[in-house]
């Protein structure tokens, strides 16, 4: 034991947590300082998301011992990506958990081409849940971190053809957003527009307990997180940025192949995550409504910035349910640095277009 580890202190610290553990639903009500119907709704909605997280975490923790938990289903989803059994399981967990909630009228997810309606909930539950059931599914079969991403919006319009046209709104309209990270412990991070808070699942209680309140992302951090395998597929500006971090001290690369884990690191330690457009896909890979916008909402609430490179991410209005956008997200200064490289290349490009007399 090192000299600064005092066993008495650590025991009393744990006891203090035991006496005053704040659960997620209580925290939502405290945040809203209300027991009114909207506060009750949000508290109940967060509670259901927590339940989905617990069910998914439970399956993930034993997946290697179960038949039919890992591997591919053999199907391809609306994105053209091969579906994993865990993608399907987690997608269905959210559906069944919210069927019983009475509050959510429809769910839209990466794994479903059109929204899933729960007609019996619609007269009372005017909320929509948008989610990525398993984010980073390439990690799932090798027991590395994955996540779930969620966003809650109020249903504002009618959706006569049930394609989710009224969901095509900017990210400021989100009522709540966050993620669950399935790592060495399961952590739920959320915001309802009043800061960012993290809860850790205590498996012995079966409850998410407040572990970090009012998280603030550092204004600058050392990490840049990007798939450099795509280097030759990016615009010059992104290559300029990458060369800059290679040539300057104080930067380090971290990329796990799962957005939630990479963002979680940056939320606590600072830095920037990038998924820019590529030659193959000018809008990059990440989907706006249930990947980029919820994370942008969270990071902005923590004092950071999210951008497409040329536009604040939360201002983007998607053209369809599964629309993608380039994503540059993290510490204010680091995102601005990337944007400055893009601005400079755009300026040079504009100058080249002006005819010289
Ligand atoms: P999903 O598993 O939901 O399809 O998302 C995977 C995403 C994201 O988690 C990650 O940052 C990115 O895809 C990794 O993509 P590359 O393999 O192209 O780097
Ligand atoms: Mn994803
Ligand atoms: Mn996914």
TrEMBL record:
PROSITE patterns: FBPASE. Binds 2 magnesium ions per subunit. It comes from the Bacteria. GO terms for biological process: fructose 1,6-bisphosphate metabolic process; fructose 6-phosphate metabolic process; fructose metabolic process; gluconeogenesis; reductive pentose-phosphate cycle; sucrose biosynthetic process. One of its GO terms (cellular component) is cytosol. It catalyses: beta-D-fructose 1,6-bisphosphate + H2O = beta-D-fructose 6-phosphate + phosphate. Mg(2+) 1 binds at residues 110, 132, 134. Its EC number is 3.1.3.11. Residues 23-213 form the Fructose-1-6-bisphosphatase class I N-terminal domain. This is Fructose-1,6-bisphosphatase class 1. The lineage of its organism: Bacteria, Bacillati, Cyanobacteriota, Cyanophyceae, Synechococcales.
């Amino acid at each position: 034991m090192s000299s600064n580890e005092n066993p008495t202190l650590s025991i009393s610290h744990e006891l203090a947590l035991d006496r005053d553990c704040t659960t997620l639903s209580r925290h939502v009500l405290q945040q809203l300082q209300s027991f009114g119907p909207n506060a009750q709704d949000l508290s109940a909605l967060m509670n259901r998301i927590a339940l989905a997280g617990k069910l998914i975490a439970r399956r993930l923790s034993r997946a290697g011992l179960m038949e039919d938990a890992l591997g591919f289903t053999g199907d391809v989803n609306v994105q053209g990506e091969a579906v994993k059994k865990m993608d399907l399981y987690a997608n269905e967990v959210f559906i069944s958990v919210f069927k019983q909630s009475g509050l959510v009228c429809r769910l839209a997810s990466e794994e479903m081409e059109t929204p899933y309606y729960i007609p019996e909930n619609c007269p009372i539950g005017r909320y929509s849940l948008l989610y990525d059931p398993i984010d980073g599914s390439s990690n799932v079969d090798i027991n590395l971190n994955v996540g779930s991403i969620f966003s809650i919006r109020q249903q504002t319009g009618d959706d006569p053809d049930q394609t989710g046209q009224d969901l095509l709104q900017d990210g400021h309209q989100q009522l709540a957003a966050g993620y669950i990270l399935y790592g060495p412990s399961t952590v739920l991070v959320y915001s309802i527009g009043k800061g960012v808070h993290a809860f850790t699942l205590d498996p012995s209680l079966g409850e998410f307990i407040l572990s970090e309140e009012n998280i603030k992302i550092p204004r600058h951090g050392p990490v840049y997180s990007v798939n450099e395998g795509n280097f030759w597929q990016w615009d010059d500006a992104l290559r300029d940025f990458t060369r800059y971090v290679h040539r300057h001290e104080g930067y380090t690369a971290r990329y796990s192949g799962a957005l939630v884990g990479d963002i979680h690191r940056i939320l606590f330690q600072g830095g920037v995550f990038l998924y820019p457009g590529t030659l193959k896909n000018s809008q990059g890979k990440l989907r706006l409504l249930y990947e980029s916008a919820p994370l942008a909402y969270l990071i902005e609430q923590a004092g950071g910035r999210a951008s497409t490179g040329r536009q604040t991410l939360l201002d983007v209005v998607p053209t369809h349910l599964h629309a993608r956008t380039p994503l540059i997200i993290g510490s204010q200064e680091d995102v601005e640095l990337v944007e400055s490289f893009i601005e400079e290349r755009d300026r040079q490009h504009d100058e080249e277009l002006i005819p010289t007399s």
